[in-house]
Every structure is written in C-alpha cells, then in structure tokens.
Amino acid sequence: MGQLNKAYTVSQVNSYIGNMFATDFALSGITIKGEISNLKYHTSGHIYFTLKDTASQISGVMFVRDRAGLQFKLEDGMSVLCTGNVGVYERGGSYQIYAKSFTADGVGDLYIRFEQLKKELSEMGMFDPMYKKPIPKYATRIGIVTAKTGAAVRDIVQIAKRRNPYVDITLYPALVQGDGAVQSIIRGIRTLDLMGMDVIIVGRGGGSIEDLWAFNEQAVAQAIFDADTPIISAVGHETDTTIADFVADLRAPTPSAGAELAVFDFTKFTEDISGYKGTLDAVLNERILDSRQKLSMYKLKINQKNPKYILNEYHKKEILYRNELKQRIHDKLTAEKEKLRKYDVLRDYMTDRLHTAKNRLRDYESMPSVMKQSIDKAHHRLLLETERLEAVSPLKKLSGGYGFVQDDKGHKVDSVKKIKKGELITTTLRDGTLKSRIEEINSGG
After folding, report:
1. Of 3.90.1300.10, 2.40.50.140, 2.60.40.10, 3.10.450.700, which CATH number belongs to 10-107?
2. Which among 22, 176, 181, 235 counts the fewest CB atoms within 10 Å?
3. For residue range 63-88, what is the model confidence (pLDDT) as tens digits?
4. pTM of the predicted model, to two decimals?
5. Dihedral, CA atoms, 361, 365, 371, 374, nearest 10 degrees?
C-alpha cells in the first residue's frame, strides 16, 4: 500500500479489503454450514439472514436475481448449507456471504419443499374437510389420469371391471414424472372434469420422492382443489404421501385401492336391490292392505251418515215393526176367535142340553105332579144359567154393537188413560176389524 505514514480514506481501506476477498480463491464458491437466524424476506425480493454456529456468526444476503437457486423457503432455526461468495460490504465496512444456493443440512431439499408447501396449503385451507366432495356411491363414469402403460392403469382397469363390468372408464394418458409431468397431469384433470365424470382417479405406481414429485407441486394441488368432479388421489404405495393426497377429496393408499373406492360392486348392488325390492314389496303390500281396510271403514262411516242409508234403515225397521204388529194382531184375533169358537161350542152344547131337557120334559109331563114340579124347577134354573152365560159371551156383546179395542202393540184398551192423541188403535167387531187414529180424548164418562 506504500509508505506507512500516508493516510488512506475509509473507502480506500474497505475497497482494498474487498479486492482481497474477491481474489481469494477459498472465499469464492465457498459452502458454509450453519443455522439460519435474523431471517428477513425484503419487499425488494432480496433475502437477508445470518448464519451462525455455537461460536460465531456471519451475515448473508441472497439477491432476487439469485433466488432461482432456492428450492424451498428459508426459516429461522433451519440448518442449511449455504453456497456463495464471501465479500465486503464496503459501505458498512463488514463482510458477508452473498448466497447463490441453499441445501438442507441433514434433510433433503425436496422434503423441505414438501413440508413447506404442505404447511402453506394447509394454512390456505385447501386441506379443510369442508371442501371435500363426497365420492358417489354408484359411480358409472370413471376418469383416470395416469400413464397409459404400467401397473397402475392395469390394476385400476382390472379391478374396476371385476367389480362392475358395466362401468365406463375414460383414460387420460398423462406424464407422471419428469419434465412436463405437472402440466400433463393438470390438463388431464381439467379435461376429464369438463367431460362430466362421476369421479376421477389421479395417480401412478410407487417410486422415490423424486419420481412422485409432480404430485407435490402446488399447481397440481390447485387443479385438484378447483375441479368440480370428486377426485381420488392414488399415488405410489401405502407408505407414500403426496400433497395431492391431502388436497384430494379422498386418498387411496394404492391405485388398486383407488379403483376399489371408486367403483361399486355390481354383484352386491344387485343383491342389495333384490333385498330392497323384497322389503319394499312387503311394506307396500302392508300399506295397501291397511289402506283398503281404512277405505272400507270410511265407506261404512260415510254410508252410515248417508240420508239414503238412514232412510233405508228406518224403512227396514218400519217393515219389521209392521210385520211384528201384524203378527201380534193376528195372534190376538186368533186367540179371540178361539174363544168365540169355544163359546159357540158351549152354546151349541147348552142348546142341545136344552132341547134334550125339553124332550125329557115332554116325556115327564105324564109323571106325577111332584116330579113334574121338580123338573120344572131344574128347567127354570137351566134357563137362568143359560141367560147368564149368554150375558157374558163376547160374541153376544159384539153382536150388540160393542167392539174390542187394542193399541198398536196389541194391548187391551179399557180406559182413556191408556191411549194418547195421535196413536193408532184396532177395534175388533163382529164381522171384522177397524184401524183408527185418536183425534180427541174426553175423560169423565
């Protein structure tokens, strides 16, 4: 730098030191291991940070132009390997590392990127169950986004056809790894979504995290989230987990399991239908029988309230009462006629006796006077008894203009107190009967 007694400016000193750093081969392209702290993502796009270990620390910056070399998001406390150039920040008089790239220390970069994207999408709500669409129970149109060859598509098709030989399968042959895989998978999802599939299976066979990485990209996750069709993620083996598994409506541990979840078992379906039909028929028949019974009951109630039905019932009762009344009158007349017949028989008997007595009287006229007087007395008593008998004979009373009165129930009427105005009465005369309706009642003799 020249003579020792010459004075230099601060800028000159810092510039000199900066040149020293720039020409030092060991400080160019150096990789420093340390823990991130004082991390700041500036609005300009630059990233400021500090690398530290247990004994020391160094400041660092990654300019926005170099961020293409950052495959994951830096976080405080993260242990990293930072590769870049150590130089002097002349304005501040300090040195720092100008980072070109970062790799995780002890953990792969892809794993870091996976965990960071998982956390970011979770915070955005893309994994929330409220956005999960239900998988149709009886899907018949199945879309598949996977490679057109390989075990995945073969297993899905075989299992789907075995479960339901009538299922309609549409394959979108997509790249599932390597360059262009992300856009190919996205196009497959969007194409099948527009075709109106019942459900879409997105997946592939197993592999390393690098092989499966297309299913960990945010663009693929967004396409799954935006689809209107329910999507089943079936990526890798059961132990493999991708971002697509978290955002999909349902995660299947393998492609084969995805087919099992998407396609219903047609044989079981037909058996269930037969069972449902039997149950439905039994319930329906029971309902029909119950409805018919209720209908019959309602018809009966309606008929009972029908004036025509009521009048018909009254008419039946009228006929019944009339027949009963006629029968009672007939029985009563028969009984009275029998009495009259007995009186006639008795009268004929008495007449014969009288005739016989008269004949005997003529025979005894020649008898002694004492016997004649005795016979005369007997004849006189016989005449008196005959007159008494005829006096109480109903036939003689009927012959004299009298009648035998009965009410409408066949009961004898011997007082005005036993009959009411408007009631029917039957009067039996010598040669027949009369039916009358009471118009007026006068009591008192």
Report:
1. 2.40.50.140
2. 22
3. 988 888 787 788 877 788 888 888 88
4. 0.48
5. 40
